[in-house]
Amino acid sequence: MDLNSKIAVLDQICRIYDEFVAKLDIACKKYCADCCTRNVTMTTLEGYLMATHMISWEKSGLFENIERAIPERRFRPQTTTNRLADLCMRGEDPPEEENNRFNGTCPLMKDNLCSIYQVRPFGCRCFVSKKDCRKQGYAEVDPFIITVNNLFLQFIEHVDSQGFSGNLIDVLKFMESKTNRHNYKRNTLDKPDTGLIPNLNITVLMIPPEHRVKIKPILKDLQGILEKKWGG
Asked: Is residue 167 pLDDT above 90, yes or no?
């Protein structure tokens, strides 16, 4: 699948998710930014889309914010969603992730608003809460929504299976490079030396038994996108 097709598929995946969220009763509203930290993870496909948006819409100054955030501590994943699912299927222990909460606002935020909201990564898009985090100090997410979120994360990683994943700051710093964007577009990226980890195709879906019936319509829509654009 070429890059334009991948971006088109990502757009359709996000549309399906937005339709799902539109039916939920959630507390997340405009200017609610307590959860907008620098701990978001995403794929290089999302990073490419965000970086080109920042350049095309004269928001290149945001890369300076990214640069300033490089020395700050942040969550850097050791495994992707699909690799975690694969390890669990094979009965192997996943690598330990850092459990410390790293505070700090996302470097793309300005006045409690996201500067690249139109192309925000799925890791931001899927963070929905039934309760106002500002009032109770934490998010409250229904278990079925967590299952849905993991499913979408698996499909997005699958689409970008030749790419990498990592912290938002690391991915955007990597995609700031014109050479890296060019190589990514041509599917000729070398393994980055920037804390990014390789993506993986879907080998098994992370759907618990109690959610398998309810999630079928969403799964059918996602599979339909890949069959139409990719042949499976």
From this structure: yes
153 closest CA partner among 227, 54, 222: 222
Packed helices 178-185 and 44-56: angle between N→C axes, nearest 10 degrees: 130
Supply the range of the domain harboring residue 28.
3-229
| Distance (Å) of CA 152 to CA 34, 148, 209 | 23, 6, 17
Q: What is the per-residue pLDDT across 46-79, written as a single tens digit (0 to 9) for each? A: 999 999 999 998 888 899 999 999 999 999 999 9
Query: What is the distance in angstroms between the CA of the first residue and the CA of the last residue of the chain?
Result: 11
Stretch 103-115: mean pLDDT: 89
The number of folded domains in the chain is 1
Residue 2 pLDDT more than 60?
yes
pLDDT at 170: 96
Does residue 103 come out as left (phi exceeding 0), alpha (psi in the -120 to 50 range) or beta? beta
SS (H, E, C) the chain: CCHHHHHHHHHHHHHHHHHHHHCCCCCCCCCCCCCCECCCEEEHHHHHHHHHHHHHCCCCCHHHHHHHHCCCCCCCCCCCHHHHHHHHHCCCCCCCCCCCCCCCECCCEECCEECCHHHCCHHHHCCCCCCCHHHHCCCCCCHHHHHHHHHHHHHHHHHCCCCEEEEHHHHHHHHCCHHHHHHHHCCCCCCCCCCCEECCCCCCCCCCHHHCCCCHHHHHHHHHHHHHHCCC
Residue 141: pLDDT band (50, 70, 90) is confident
